[in-house]
Batch of 3 targets.
Target 1
Amino acid sequence: MALYDLTLNEIQEYLKLEPYRARQVVEFMYKHLGDLSKASALPKNVLNQIAGDPYFQTSLKLLKLSQCDNGQTHKFLFELNDHKLIESVLMQYHNRSSVCISTQSGCKMNCSFCATGQMGFKRNLTKGEIVEQVITLMRFCLRNNYRPVTNLVFMGMGEPLDNYENTVSASWAIKNDLNLGAKHITISTVGIVPAIESMADDNLPFRLAVSLHGADNETRSRIVPINKKYPIETLVVALKKYLMASGSRRISLEWTLIEGTNDSVDQAIKLSKIAKDLKAHVNLIYLNPTKATLNRPTDKNTALAFKSMLDNHGINCTLRRTRGQSIDAACGQLASIN
Ligand code: SF4
């Protein structure tokens, strides 16, 4: 446990503060991003309490910061208090600034193309460890005159819905205390059906991105093994329930283009049907090279033809530019190698 694991009431109780003082501490933590030099509203004794209490120390130690794409992509390697490693990525664009945040150290899901999956599962991150990644990257933007963070995706290490409670409570803190709109917070999943149903039942306002990668069970199970447990038909039913729970939500389907595996005409047609059924946006991305896979990315012409096929079926679709590849910060590459 650490500072950002605590709620307002817990802070008030633990530090034995008046409610208004506890609110000032929360303001210091979130509005001022935990920067002690900006905590002038707090009296010295409270500041000393915060600074001197091991419970209030940071839960992340920055081990390494790498950058590429002309300084537009940064990868942060953090050590947690129990020496487990995680990574977070900051990407600057001309009109937005996006952070990619981890929810677990390692991952159980073992997707065929993913370096994180190959490192095995270490543990779930606490709510505080998730929130603190965002705080640290926001502070980095502020200190270096980068565009402030506008978007957040839980697409770093781990399967967010396999750590449902902490991912959701972190998302609420990021929305309510860091003022990032729910539409700008995306939870990404390989399709943990009971958790998607919980998202519907809990009426969560956040966006959902589903890593589909295959449009029939045989193809998808080869890329995303959890499909054997939650096949496409079951997944689609859960996603419809999630969509129905609030008419305003939009789902995106993520599709890593892998040469000879999921870039055929047949896959494009089947994907179009699923996307149409869910009124989903499709994000296509080239496979990023990792030690986890011998597969190759789809070549440009085949990728463009695949996209045209989706376009012709009336599917909203984007072929994404890969960011962070040279520092292993791109999708599927995060593996905490110091
Ligand atoms: S792609 Fe995501 S869910 Fe799959 S192994 Fe990698 S981190 Fe886990």
Target 2
Amino acid sequence: MNFLELAKKRCSVRQYADTPVEKEKLDYVFEAVRMAPSAVNFQPWKFLIVTTDDGLKKVQSCYGRDWIKTAPICMIACSDHRASWKRGSDGKDHADIDIAIAVEHLCLAAAEQGLGTCWVCNFDTVRCRELFQIPDYLEPAVMIPMGYPASASIFEENNKKRKELNEIIQQY
Ligand SMILES: Cc1cc2nc3c(=O)[nH]c(=O)nc-3n(C[C@H](O)[C@H](O)[C@H](O)COP(=O)(O)O)c2cc1C
């Protein structure tokens, strides 16, 4: 599978099978996260890996969609604002950019391994912070449920609705 095929394969999976995720696959996915680039190589992130029933219930209570209850694992990607690069010219904090790259490494590596993921940002971050005792300098930025898709064919069948190239590029 070349990169474009992988990019087309990755899709948002919102229903998971009971099948447990092998430790080797989780390790593989996190090695891909570890390789993500970041501004000044500061790597300003912390990933909470939630696998226990108690932890997953907490995750579910932060995101009111039933489908998330089917995920056997959920990651909470946190941006570390203490560690992130702030641009000198305007002070821009690059934590959001960095965490997004790392999260997409995660999702792509998972898809390559046949695992489904879904970016989830529309969750209750205040509740998440409380339940997982996340300190102030970390921002719970993205939840990423992960597991084998309930439908084995989802990777082949997902139809990407995307803007045309001429809508997103401009030649100078
Ligand atoms: C930053 C970001 C936040 C997202 N938040 C949510 C979310 O809270 N819930 C959800 O179901 N999907 C969420 N998504 C998934 C998008 O809806 C999805 O990526 C988009 O519709 C394209 O579909 P695809 O991932 O299958 O290619 C999010 C995606 C991104 C990149």
Target 3
Amino acid sequence: MPRSGWSDRFARIGEIDVQDPQTWESRLFLTIDLDWAIDPAIELCLDMLDDAGVAATLFVTHDTPLLARIRSNRRLELGVHPNFNRLLDGEAGSGSAEAVMHELQRLVPEARAVRSHSMTQSSRLLDLFVRCGMTHDCNHFVPVQSGITLKPYAHWKRALTRVPYCWEDDIDLEYGAGPSPLDIATAGTGLRVFDFHPIHLALNTVSIEHYETTRSAHRTGEALREAAAPGPGGVRDRFAALLQGRMSS
Ligand SMILES: [Zn+2]
């Protein structure tokens, strides 16, 4: 059972208003980068979000029939997760940053929030996001390990709210032994935005090595279930504890 009233603390990135601290100060923000995960992994994530009745923002990388399911849940918000890496790698025929954005906007025309894959950002990309109608940018990662208390802030052109985030599943595994999302949610202060990936929820990833050595299992639901760690202490266990507001028994 979740803590009473716990699910009401979660909000969507698009609700953050720099001028109104009530929109973020005591709130919790779940963000999910889809990262081309297979549908069974995304479904597991959506089932957990639905069961907990919490708000979240999902950053989309690709088309999937599950976009309709996400749209049918009013607590969920769709954003875009553009991948500019092919441009940076000089891959032939990879187009332009604008084309990358427009391709995703065709899939998710309602998106107003953006986080780039690999957090790619620059002043030119931020200008592009504004031209594409984005109102909230989530590219700035300031790890909770820094001890810095976070706030949203206005981009100098005012049209864009910058929403830094403090915790990401795979980076937490790289750091090791950091505070859990539940610890941050219950004891932390300031803006608290968490970033999870469906693949790490499905695998219940316990280490980077666990993720890397199971790569061949990441493309089917059955193989993923077999490769998943039993827990406790995996990414899914930590996600579940955050959703419930307590450690699961
Ligand atoms: Zn990504």
